[in-house]
Every structure is written in C-alpha cells, then in structure tokens.
Queue: 2 jobs
Job 1
Amino acid sequence: MAYLLIVDDDTDFAGAVTTVLRSRGYEVAVETDAEQALERIRRRRPDAVILDVMFPENDTAGFEVARAIRRTCGALPVLLLTAVNQSFPLGFSNKDLDPAWLPAVEFLEKPVDFELLCEKVAGILAGTSKAPAP
Amino acid sequence: MTRSHVASSEFARERGMTTETVTPGWAAYDLPLEEAARSDGAPSAAEPPLYAEADGRLLRQNIAWFCSLRWLVIAALAGLGLAAWAGGDVLAHRGIRVTPAWPLAVAAALGLLNLAYLALARSAARSPRHAARMLQGLWLQILADLVMLTVVVHYLGSLETFAPFMYLFHVVLACIFFPPGRSLLVLLSAMGMYCACILLESAGVVPPGAVLASPLLPGREGTPPTLLACHVGSVVLISGMVWYLASRLAGALRERDRELAATNRRLLAATEERAQHMIRTTHQLKAPFAAIHANTQLLLGGYCGPIPPAAVAVIEQIAARCEMLSREIKAMLQLANLRSHVQHFPGPVPIDLPALIRSCLSNLKPQAAKRGISFAEDLAPASVCGVHDHAVMMVDNVLSNAVSYSRDAQQVSVSCNSKTDGGAVVVVRDRGIGIPAEKLPHIFDDYFRTREAVKHNKASTGLGLAIVRQAALAGKIRVRVESTPAEGTVVSLDFPAAPDAPQKRR
C-alpha cells in the first residue's frame, strides 16, 4: 500500500482528498503545517507528497517545501496544488517553475477534479520503482 | 480567403473598426495593440528624464532632431549662396550684397560637421558609456554651431543687421534641454564669440561684412566706441534677459515634470497594491470554494453513503454554483496576474498550436456535448514562440465563448494555419447570437456583456475577452473579431513569428 502525505492547511479540502484516496487503497496522512512537513517526511518517508502552494504564513511556502524535499529526499514525487494557472501564481518568479530548479514536480489546479487527482497520483507513483500504484 | 468590404462608415473608423472582413457584410474589429504599453491605464514606472543627459534614448532623439534642424539651416545657407551666385546682380540692385563663397563654404562645413555628429551619435550609441559620450558630442556640436553662427553673423553684419539675435535660438534651446548652469554657459559662450567678432572687426583684424548696402545705414568707420559698446551691450542684455526668462520657464516646467513623475509613481504603486490585494483576496476566496467543491464531489461520488435523489439535486446545484464561482475567481486571478507589474511572465517557449487547441477542445467537449454542439477541426501543423499559458488562456476563452454563445446543436469550427513569415493564425467561428457592430469595440472591456449575451448565457464572467486582450497585448498577438447579430462570430488570433523564425518559402 503506497503511503501518501497531504500537506495542506485547509483541513476541509485535505479531509475530502484523504477520503477519496483512502477509498482507492492508499495510506494517507495529513500535515497542515508546511514547516512541520519536512520533519514528518524525515520521520517516515512517503511514496509521494501532495502539497498545497499557499500557506497562511507564506504565499510560497509550498515551493520552499518542494525545494527542500528535492534537496533532502532526492526523487520523491511531489504533486503541487495551485489555486491559479501554474505559470505565474502569486509572488512567484520564473525560477520557481524552472524544471531545473524544481525537478520532478507535477501540478494540479484547484478546485481539483478527484478523478484527475487519482490519475495524477497513480502516474507519479508509477514513475517510481519504490512504490507502484496499488 | 476572399476579403470583401463592408459598407464604409465613419462610425466604424472612429472606433478602430476595420472595413475589411473575411465574411462579406460582417462588421469587424481589430483589437488595437498600440496601447499595449499601458493598456490598463497604469502609468509608467520610470521617472521622465528632466535633462537630456539623464536618458540616453532621449538624448539620441534630441541629437537626431538637432541634426535634422541643422540640415534646414544648411539648405537655407546653400540656397543663399546659390542665389548670390546665380542672381548676384539682381540682389545687388535690391541693396543686398552677398558673395556666394561664404554661405556655400559655411553650408559645406556645417554639412560635414552634421555627418560627423551623426556618425559620432551612432558609434556612441554602441558604446557602454554611450550617454556620457553622446553628451560630449552634444557640447562639441553646440560649440561648433556657435562658431559657425559667429561666421554667419560676421558676414551678414554683426552691427548692421539683426543677425546677432540668432544666438537666441541656441540660448532658448539650451534653456529647454539643460539645467540653468549649463544654459548660462551656452549664453556666455555665444556672447563671448559675438564680442570677439566685434573686437576683431573693430581692431581691423577682419574687415566687417555686411550684406545690406543701404545708404541709410552708416558705415562702420567713425562709429564712436560708446555707441559700439551700447550696441553690443544691448545684444548681450537682451540675450541675458531671454536666457533668464526661458530658464525660469523651463525650470518651472521641469518642476511640473518632476511632480507629475512623482504622482505617476504613487499612482503606479497604488495600482500595484490594489492588484496585489485583489490577487490575494481572490486567492483566499478560491480556497474555500475548492473545499466546498471537493466535498460536493465526495457526496455525489457516494463516498459518504447513499443520498436521496432530492438531496443529490440540491448538491448538484451547490456544485454547479461553486464551479461557476471558482471559474469567475480564476478569471479574476488570471486578469490580475496579467496586469500586475511585479509578476514575472515565464519566458517564451515553442508552442505546438494544434496540440494546444486539441487540449482546450478536450476540456470543452463535455460541456458542448450537453447542448449538442460539435466541433469542426482543421488544424494544420503550426508552431509559434510565446508564453504557453497566455496562448492557452486566449484559445480557451475564445473557444469557450464560441460554445457559450452558439445556439444548441450548432457547429463551432476551429482552424489553425501557419503563415509564410513563421507566425500562425487560429480562427474560431461560431454560428451563434453574434455581436452588434456598435458593441464590438467594447467586448474586450472588463465585465462588458451585450444584452443579448446576458440573455443567452447568464453564467459568463464577462472577463474572458478582457483576459484575451491582456494576453494579446503582452504577446503582440493580433486579434480580430468579425460578427453579425443572429449569424455568428469569427475570432482570429494572429500569432507573430518569433524574431529569429525562419521564413517559409513561398
């Protein structure tokens, strides 16, 4: 069973996503604090991270977490959830979206279609040998 | 494509509407791209340069203007020289004595100097310290012009004619383009050269020249030194007064410039703050809708157990409203992002237009199918260079409008063709409600919707074409809308070629 970590401060949204993903057979945990997310990943490495971009304390916290994941966890798949089209969301620069700077990241726009979300999750998991999709 | 002409009308021209259309008899409107720089009404961030040297581009423009002005002076001098050469007797008969040599010699010298200035300006423009080099060149021009003018004043008559007042042209121009200290330097140089000319003439080093040979004018011999001093003093005094007045007026204008620039900067900052506030607010609004949308999906997807049909209908209504609001918020965010001056657009990338159109169509097809609307695709291979998301926004909004304003069971056609210059054109045609000709110039305004459009589709945000406009202005993509009420609308997106795109062979 693949283990997924959802990092999103919106518990309503994260709860709904958790319900759907659990129904598809994934093990899911939720972390609402971006700063705690890395610690949680260190404690138990997930097979993929579903990460919101905007957090109350920092508009670009999601990108910072994604970069930290790249630095510390190598090729751990990350699915970034954005509330606007991915190219120029609030306060971000081109560098934030440069594939060289933020490799192996998938984007999904909110509001999320659950079928699309499940497809994306299955896709990023299939791209790793560690945890194939259930 | 056959082009025909709509009956010409002043109305159409006044509103930037074109009289050439793809479809005979339809009104057409080309989105103006000239206002691209500040289409949203935001002022320029840059402070307007107060002095010529503050800005290299302005300095170059001024130098070019001085050079073109100088060609006129050269032409006048050459004309005088040729007139003296061809009709010296006639002029002498009228009391004007001009030897053709000096006007032609001065014209030739000024012509050579002008060519040298232009070459200097061109080489200075390529230099890393171009502003400083061009400023040095400008001072050289001023001094050389003053020397040439002194020669002309000498030959025309430094005391006998009003020629010395020609120095005032230089003084006034210096007051306009330089701060008071430097314009005073120009005045002192001019007056110094004039006094030197008078001194040399009075000392007999050079014989005084005079083109006027009227018996009413006394000769230079025997002029009392006091009268000479009074004459020269008058010229110097008048020039000084003109310098004082012109530099005061120019100073007041510069002060107004400075105030305007400061107001512009404050306005820009306020506009930017408002845009950022709007982005943040709409972003915050979107999050709860994302959660509501997610929860309605949970309920409708049966994740929370069976739900009675009446409850399902209510949840579907909530989901539909939520989706509509999310769409509107997304449109507001896209527009605010496109208009924000602190956001950085991603760099241009190669765009496969047919693939982009197919992707947009696949998102629209479920919605179109519900109303029996089909698509006719004619997508030839075409690749352009631009911001991918801008292209997606433009094509998506145009296609979405075509579906929204089509009548049920109609067809929307979309074509894509590459152009010979390396660009490409996407044309979307619907057979829907159309747009009245007088409304065409307004359809790209925020929240503008015709009465017919509101009646036909209540769910539209009214921001789709405003987004198209902003993206078009950012990418210099020409947009043309042709329409006739009750018959349909054709929207053409003309993507420009990349600057280094290879041209197709004809």
Note: The helical segments of chain A are 11-23, 34-43, 61-73, 94-97, 114-126.
Job 2
Amino acid sequence: MSERLTGIILAHSQVAEAFVAAVGAIAGAEHGLVPVSNEGCDRAAITSRLDAAIAGRPAVVFSDMPGGSCAFSAAAYTHDHPAVAAVTGVNLAMLLDFVFHRDLGAAAAAERAVATGRASVRVVGPAK
Amino acid sequence: MSVELFRVDDRLIHGQVVVGWGQPLGIAFIVLVDDEVRGSDWEQELYRMGVSPEVEVVFASVAEALGALPGWQASERRGIVLTGDIAGMLQLARGTNGAVKKVNIGGIHYREGRREHLRYVYLSDEEVQSLRSLADAGVEVSAQDVPTGTRVGLEELLR
C-alpha cells in the first residue's frame, strides 16, 4: 500500500496554524496536516521550510492565495518533486475533505480539493 | 513618470507587490528585473499565473532593463519595477543616469551574515554599502513594506 498523503498548509502569518487547529477541532487529530508560515522568509527560506515539512513524502501543498509568495514557492517546488501537488486558495471545506481522501495520488487529491473548495464558496444570505 | 515604484523585494512578485502596492497605485504592469527568472520559462509562467490578467508582467535581465527603462517611464500606463536584491537596483540606477530617483526597500529577509534593521529588512555590510552608494548617486532610499506602513528613511534604517 502506498504512503498516505501529507497535507502542507503554507500561508502568511499564523493562518496555517489556525487552519490546522480548526481541522483538528472538527475532524480529530489524525488529519495529516502540517502548518508552515512564510513569516520572515525570502523565497529560498520558504522553500527550505516547505522541504523540511514535506520530508520526502507524497504531499499536497495548500497555499493561501494566488500571486502570493506561498503560492509561488509551492508551485515552484512541484517542478522538481513529482509526488507533490500544489493548490492555492485554501479553505476549511477543502481541507476537511482532504483529510478523508489521503489515499488518492497527489494530483487527484489536488483536483478534488479544488472542486470541493470551489463548491463551498457560495452566497448564503440574505435568505430568499 | 509612469514607473510609480522602484522596489527591492527578495520575494519578487507576491501579495504585497500585486495587492498592497498594485491596487492603490493602479498598476497596469510589473517589471521583474531578475537574470535568473529571465532565463527560466517555467518560472515566468508561474509568476504570470499569479497576477491578474489585466496586469502585464514583463521579465527582464538587468542588461535588458537598462535599455528598456526609458520606454517604461514614457508609458501612459503605471508600473512597478522590481529587483530581488539591492545590487540589481544599484546596477539599474547607475546604468540609467538618474532615471531612478526613489527606491523602496520592501523586503530583504534574514540570511546568515545579515543584521536586522527592521522586521522585514536584514542587511549585510556589503548591502549597507550598496544602499549608501545608491544615496550617493542621488537616489532617495527608504524602507516601507506596504503603503499603510511607516516609511523609514535611509539614515534611520541604517542606525
């Protein structure tokens, strides 16, 4: 059986830690998510933190926003690491779905996360 | 002048540039002056993907930027010229004969051999000297990460 995916949340400030805490509170401790902050980092230092968090495992990296240093670093990392996929625009719904689908390959898990994340963004008020 | 900001930022194109400065300045183009990225098609594609389609992203080596800067400054659109290090901006300033009048130090992060000057500015002795060289060339140098942040002049920055 192949190794289950690790999810890396790479984001500004303390966003990643907050996401991990929220997922843990909802889905329990066996979530397979690792938080990484870009705080105080240039591009090389972000990549070093990412590399240490992934530790050679198959992974999906969830970054916070397109155009940010986290998204660029994650996308660049996948160029040389085919077992790693990258998604940007992370939200809680996609993370909660991911933790229950960590047996997928990285690319398939990334596609699923994007679909789930998109589907969760909707107007919910005012009621019609 | 249509180049609204000359910025040094070792994260290159990222949120503070695209959103923090780009939105309030009404930026229509971003020039990334970086020899390494200029030579890498896939890195250029990455940077283009992260920026709104209405903002043009131009990649230039330092040598190319020296020749193209007058055209960017004559453009009717507003833009940002960005280098990843102080040395690149110094080359640009020296090679364009006064065209670079102000430089914004937006982010130079910790590395071994650098000392903290601001939360987002760490400098080696060589980089301190390069900033002084920029000032000696008549360039107004200041540090400011985002438009709403405090602008810190060179002398205060280097204290």
Note: Chain B has a mean pLDDT of 95.
